[in-house]
């Protein structure tokens, strides 16, 4: 019986010692953080370094997305678009439905925007369709769609100045 008490006492003492050591380290770290100017400089430098790395990663991802947009638009142009009125209407409905599904899913914004872009290419009045997209399509997908339209000179929605000023190419 005394062996089991000793074992539990040893375990409790070990846990207490480890916990006390952890608390002591936390107090030491906090004291050092507050009083040591070199340590604070090192922490600030580390923070700036992480922020810079995150910014560079975001810029690289943005460039990668722009390249993906250009490739997607080029592939869509290469595939071609229907010319018959009935085929255009069916194509439009199919692409809008696919775009809505993909944008609600949220998995691939570029693919969703590409579907809306393809529908826009066959729609007789793209300006009207863009105003509908502006109200119904999620902003991330709409922004990608605006980039796709900007890279395609064959779609005339409005003046280029409106697109650059942030109104997504729609003149009201």
Structural class: mainly alpha
Strand content: under 5%
Rg of Cα set: 29 Å
Report the sheet with the most strands, covering strand number, pairing sense and barrel closure.
none
- Helix count? 7
SSE ordering: HHHHHHH
Average pLDDT rating: 83
Explain the overall architecture.
With 172 residues, the protein is mostly helical. The longest helix is centred in the middle third of the chain and has 43 residues. The C terminus is likely disordered.
Provide the descriptors you would attach to this structure in a database record.
disordered C terminus, mainly alpha, 172 residues, elongated, 82% helix
Q: Which SSEs are present, and which pair or pack?
A:
Blueprint: H1 2-35, H2 37-79, H3 85-105, H4 109-122, H5 126-136, H6 139-151, H7 160-164
Helix pairs in contact: 1-2, 2-4, 2-6, 3-4, 4-5, 4-6
In short:
By secondary structure, this protein is an all-alpha fold. The chain has helices at 2-35, 37-79, 85-105, 109-122, 126-136, 139-151, 160-164.
